[in-house]
Structure formats: C-alpha cells, structure tokens
Specification:
Elements: H1 24-43, H2 49-56, H3 61-89, H4 91-111, H5 115-143, H6 149-175, H7 181-184, H8 186-200, H9 215-238, H10 243-265, H11 279-308, H12 314-320, H13 323-340, H14 346-367, H15 378-398, H16 406-435, H17 444-465
Transmembrane segments: 25-44, 64-83, 95-117, 123-143, 155-175, 181-202, 214-233, 245-261, 282-306, 312-332, 344-368, 374-404, 450-468
Keywords: Antibiotic resistance, Membrane, Transmembrane, Transmembrane helix
Domain Major facilitator superfamily (MFS) profile: 27-473
Length: 478
C-alpha cells in the first residue's frame, strides 16, 4: 500500500538509466509480484498464528502478536531511509539486496523453534521488504512507457494492497501443510524475482538527492512504536500501573519527541515534516493510519473468533474471510471509475467507503453469536466491510501526493505506507490489550467491545478523509 494512482511521474528518465530492452509489462509483472510478496508477509501470518504458537511452544497472544508487530514496525520505520539509499546506490541494487535479505530471513523464520527467534527473523524479513518495496516502485516509474506511468503505478499499488486482504486465504492454504510454509513460500518466488530482475531491469539512480538518509531517525521510530506496542500489549498481563508498562509508554513519548526534533533538524530526515503542511497529504496519512488500525484489529479478531469459538480450521477460516478480498477488489475498481468518469471528489468517496466499512464492523457486533452462523453473520459483515474498505483505502493512499512537488512524490508515498503500517501495529496492540490474558478465548462481549473500537476508528477515518479532496481553484475576476 505504498503508491498512488495520481502520482505525477516523479522521476525523469535520462540516458537509458530507466530504459530497458525488455518488455515493460514483463518488468512490471516481476516488480508487482515482489511488492505483493513483501507486503503479503504483513498479513499472511494472521490465520496461522495459533499453529505458529504450537510450533514454537507459545500460547500467549501478547507474545505471538510480536510475530505480526515486529515485522510491521521495522517495515514502517525503514521504508523511507531504504528508499533514499536505493536512490543513492541504485534501485536495481536495492531491489536485489532487499529480496536476497527477505529470502534468507524467510528461511530462518521457517526453521525457528522459539517465538523470539522467529520474531528476530521476522524483523530481518521486514528489513528486506523495506529495501525492495520503494526500490521496486522506483523501477516501475523508470521502466514504464511515458504514457502508461499512472496505469503501471496503479497496478503496482493494487498488487501490494491486495496482499492485505488475500493474506488469510493464502495463509489458510499453506498452514494445511505446515505453519513453516507461511515463510518457505517466499523462497521460490523470491529467487525467481531475483533472477528475472537481474536479467531484465536496468539500474536507475535519482540524481537529485544522493545524501545518506537519517538512519538514527529510523532507529528512534522503531524504538518509539515498539515501546508503545509493548506497553499496550503487555498491560493486561503486567497491569496498567506496573512500572514496566509506565516505562514503556514513557519511552514511547520521549522517543516521539526525539524523533520529531531530529526530523526537524536533519538534512535528510525519515519524515520530512514540511510535507504535512499540505492538508491533503496530512489528511491522507491520518486517515490511512486509522483505516489500517481498524482493518488489522478486525481481521485478527475475526480470525481468532472463528478459530477459538467456532473451532474453524485455518483453511476454513481463510475461506470464510474470502468475501472481504472480493468486495475490496470490486470497490477499488469502482472508486477509480467514480473519480475519473463522474468527477466525484476523492475525499467524498473515501468518506462514504469508511462509513460503509463502519456499518460492516457494526454488523459483527449484532450478528455474530457463540454458535456458528457464518451465512447470517460473518458473510454479510465481510462483504460490506470489504466493499467499503475498497472504496476508502486505495482512494486515500492514491490521493496522498496530490499537491506535492514531483521530486517529493516518492518520499511522500513511502511516508503514507509507513503511517498505514504503524496503524496496523496500533490496531493489533489495542485488540490484544482488550482481549487480555484470555487471548482468543475471550468472551463474546469482549469481542463486541473490540469491534466497537474498530468501528470508531474507521468512522473517524471517514471524517478525516474529507480533507483529502482538493480545494476548488479560485476563478479570477476580471
């Protein structure tokens, strides 16, 4: 979820740097596959979390949540620095290095026998994904024909965004063999991407800004978000007044202040704070963060509910979640038509989509029961939520760089992706804190409270989304 439909070509192709004798569509296919693969690992482990717990000998949801959050935190924090490193040393080199790290870490994760060893390898996976994702976007921009840049970016973005909603079904299928296949599956596709990219893709560099990015700022961001997640996730076990929780939250606050201070002063910050003076960009970041927080909490909670209360298998749970991807894909296509053909403002589309998704979440509260009732419960909820999210999320992200200078667009899109990943961490952490020590076996009433929080986050995202629409241009009076 890291690109945008309305991105003006942020790079100028020069001297064959971005050209290739290979067919651009084939290069796009390779890069889109890599984007899907890197972002799929944010979501694919949701449905396999119980099986992973059994495999690594952990039943604590607060510990297992780090299998999800550890990846998302590192991925979010390193996206912008990794993108700038790729600009400096070459996007092809960044892509190949990132994919190699991702494949190697996937093997390590598949062989892990301890939950914290798995979390470490998940973090290394995220390092690789953070390198390959912005590099692949840059390669799309420099390899696409001039008249097809926006279409190629849209395809690349859609490939990445669909990973979030396809994760459960793929995860459910792979877990049937072993939870280790959640990570092993990355290896053949990753090696294929490396081989094809090495042969087909030219090494493009961005000449405008070759300075070393603020890596310490990236570390501060990891510490800040990690401490916040730790405090929230562990509070039910330790107690909200426990010194460890208080210390974690204090570190998060201090880390935020230090991160903002450093970002304001560093020549090449992780987050260029001046970009947030643009109302559309600021609104898109906040709306995307809220939407992903809601989506992440809803996805994991529904999976835990079906597996722990209805005793669904992983594959059955994945299939039960399939209506969400279908609704998402249909609505994402419709949102583009609404903007282009009917000139409906992006903010209005995103707000309406968020409202529809909020209703879908509310239906979870009223329709789900302790006894399995998929057709009258989960199915209509996921259809409505998926359609609403498909209208809202791609519209918000694709509008994020409207009004930014062309040279700011790539960095701006990476910041939006960072915001959405931080949102997923916050959403999962809130859910784990609400379910508490009972983990997935919490009572229905506890789940209903969690769904109400997810609904509130999505509804708030709808209000914020209204700021994504461009202001009408003033008409000069003669």
């Amino acid at each position: 979820m890291s690109s945008q439909d309305q991105m003006a070509p942020p790079l100028t192709q020069k001297g064959g740097e971005g050209s290739s004798n290979a067919r651009p569509a084939l290069i796009l296919a390779v890069l889109a596959m890599a984007s899907f693969l890197g972002q799929l690992d944010v979501w694919i482990t949701n449905v396999g979390l119980p099986d992973i717990g059994q495999g690594v000998g952990s039943t604590s949801l607060s510990d297992l949540s780090w299998v999800l959050n550890g990846y998302a935190i590192v991925f979010a924090a390193l996206l912008v620095p990794a993108g700038r490193l790729a600009d400096r040393f070459g996007r092809k080199n960044g892509f190949l290095l990132g994919m190699a790290v991702f494949v190697a870490a996937s093997l390590g994760a598949a062989l892990a026998t301890d939950v914290w060893v798995l979390v470490v390898f998940r973090a290394f996976q995220a390092v690789g994904a953070a390198l390959l994702t912005p590099a692949s976007l840059g390669l799309v921009l420099t390899s696409a024909p001039a008249d097809k840049v926006e279409r190629y970016v849209k395809i690349w973005f859609t490939a990445g965004s669909l990973s979030g909603v396809c994760g459960p079904i793929f995860g459910g299928l792979l877990v049937q063999a072993s939870w280790r296949w959640l990570f092993l599956v990355n290896i053949p596709f990753g090696l294929l991407a490396i081989a094809l990219a090495a042969r087909l893709v030219s090494n493009a560099k961005h000449e405008q800004d070759a300075r070393i990015p603020d890596l310490l700022g990236g570390v501060l961001l990891i510490v800040m978000v990690g401490a916040l997640a730790l405090g929230i996730v562990k509070a039910p076990d330790w107690g909200w007044s426990d010194s460890r929780v208080v210390t974690s939250l204090a570190v998060a606050v201090v880390g935020l202040v230090a991160f903002l201070f450093r970002s304001a002063r560093h020549r090449v910050p992780v987050v260029d704070l001046s970009l947030f003076r643009n109302r559309i960009f600021a609104s898109a970041n906040l709306a995307g963060m809220l939407q992903l927080a809601s989506f992440a909490a809803l996805l994991l909670s529904s999976i835990l509910w079906m597996q722990s209360h209805w005793h669904y298998s992983a594959i059955k749970t994945g299939c039960a979640s399939l209506p969400g991807p279908i609704g998402f894909a249909l609505a994402a296509t419709a949102s583009e038509t609404l903007q282009r053909r009917f000139r409906i403002p992006a903010g209005v589309i995103a707000a309406v989509g968020s409202a529809i998704a909020s209703v879908g979440i509310l239906l979870f509260v009223f329709l789900l029961h302790d006894d399995p009732n998929y057709l009258s419960g989960v199915l209509p909820c996921w259809l409505l939520f998926g359609f609403g999210a498909g209208l809202a999320l791609p519209t918000v992200v694709s509008s994020a760089t409207v009004g930014l200078r062309p040279e700011e667009a790539a960095t701006g899109s990476a910041i939006v992706t960072m915001s959405t990943q931080i949102g997923s961490v916050v959403g999962i952490s809130i859910l784990v804190a609400m379910l508490g020590t009972a983990s997935g076996g919490a009572a229905l009433e506890t789940y209903r409270h969690a769904w109400l929080v997810a609904m509130a986050l999505m509804a708030f995202a709808g209000l914020v989304s209204l700021g994504v629409s461009q202001q009408p241009k003033a008409v000069a009076v003669r």
